[in-house]
Amino acid sequence: MDISSGIFGTMFMISNSLLYPVVLVLLGLIAWSFISVGQFVSEYTSRRLDSRRLKTNCRDAKSKIEKEDLNGAASALTGSGSNDLLQRFTKDISEILNVENFPVEAEKLLQDYELTISGELMQSRLVSRVGPMLGLMGTLIPMGPALIGLSSGNIQQLAENLVIAFATTVLGLLAGGVAYSILLIKKKWYTQDLSDMEYVVEVLK
């Protein structure tokens, strides 16, 4: 009996000690959410759908490459992207046009950008999973002291812990919801960006 009570007491103590770290991480995720929303709006306003210009410039660059006018091809490519990511990609690929094994280098550059995009989405994907989990932890941890307060007739202790439980639930769901929404929209954006990058590489090969 003493052993079991000691084990349960240790489990209760460990779970209670996790409350403050969970709350701090949740507050950090909320701050991340506000920052991410600002960055999302900024990226949205900087994007423009102009695939026709990208295709035209790629064909122009290809014709200049066939005429061995690499400087003209680089000029045609630079600035043909419809957003900052594509702008960087076209700039980077224009700098390797004179490389002997251009197809290999272009494929490597494309793979590097795929990894960059994957890393960009990783934060939103992680927060969308971790936020609700931490919110659930923040909900369950105060329930122990709340039930103790209820059994002892301490209504104030019960109320304080219930407030913490509900607040952490809301924060976790908010952070997860914001991250998931951003993830879905950015995933669509970057899928289109990768399609455009693959088009550029295929045309220039």
Q: Give the % helix.
A: over 70%
Order of helices and strands: HHHHHHHH
Mean pLDDT metric: 88
Instruction: Tell me the β content.
Output: under 5%
The tally of domains stands at 1
Shape: elongated
State the low-pLDDT regions, or none.
none
Largest sheet: none
Number of distinct helices: 8
The tally of beta strands, per DSSP, is: 0
Class derived from helix and strand content: mainly alpha
Q: How far do the termini sit from each other? A: 76 Å
Over the alpha carbons, how many angstroms does the gyration radius reach? 26 Å
Task: Walk me through the structure.
The chain is mainly α and 205 residues long. The protein has one domain. It contains eight helices and no strands. The longest helix has 50 residues. The relative contact order is 0.15. The mean pLDDT is 88.
